[in-house]
Amino acid sequence: MDLTVDERTLFLHGYFDVRSTGVVREALYDQIEHTTGDVVVDLAGVEAVDATALKVLAVASRAMERQGRCLILRGCSPALRRLLAYTRLRRLMNFERATA
Predict the structure, then answer these.
(1) Is residue 28 part of a domain?
(2) Buried (b) or exposed (e) across 33-71, using 16+ Cβ within 10 A?
(3) DSSP characters over 6-59
(4) Pick from 92, 57, 61, 98: which is nearest to 77 by CA?
(5) Strand-strand pairing, 2-6 and 94-95
(6) What confidence tens digit (pLDDT) does each residue in 21-77 have?
(7) Among 53, 79, 93, 96, which has the highest number of CB atoms less than 10 A from its own CB?
(8) Inter-residue contact 43 to 56 (CB < 8 Å)
(9) Structural domain includes residue 100
């Protein structure tokens, strides 16, 4: 997993799975703690996601919601959107609208 941070956006590349959730969780909560406003997680470069990764995103989304902020997912593949719908986590997530 390669992770880069730019302003309030985390860019993930590779496999977002149990081996990388610790690194992503740490970077995500660092962003949440040290920024104001919404935080974006760009998943366009993610090849695969597992259940532990989904849990990290869901818990962070709920934490931000309690603060009146949003965790916004960008670049979700159709397969990831289906997985979020199947697990009923889609209702907890905010998605960035694609720009034309």
Answers:
(1) yes
(2) eeeeeebbbbbeebeebeebbbebbbebbeebeeeebbb
(3) ETTEEEEEEEESTTTHHHHHHHHHHHHHH--S-EEEEEEEEEEE-HHHHHHHHH
(4) 98
(5) unpaired
(6) 999 999 999 999 999 999 999 999 999 999 999 999 999 999 999 999 999 999 999
(7) 53
(8) no
(9) no
Work out the number of other CB atoms within 10 angstroms of the CB of residue 2: 10
Task: Provide the CATH number for the domain around residue 59.
Answer: 3.30.750.24
Query: Is residue 79 helix, strand or coil?
Result: helix
Which domain range does residue 58 map to?
2-95
Closest by CA to 47, choosing from 22, 14, 78, is 14
pTM for the full model? Answer: 0.90
Residue type (1 letter), 29: Y
The conformation of residue 70, written as its DSSP 8-state character, comes to -
Q: How many domains does the chain have?
A: 1
- Token pair of 25 as six digits: 């969780």
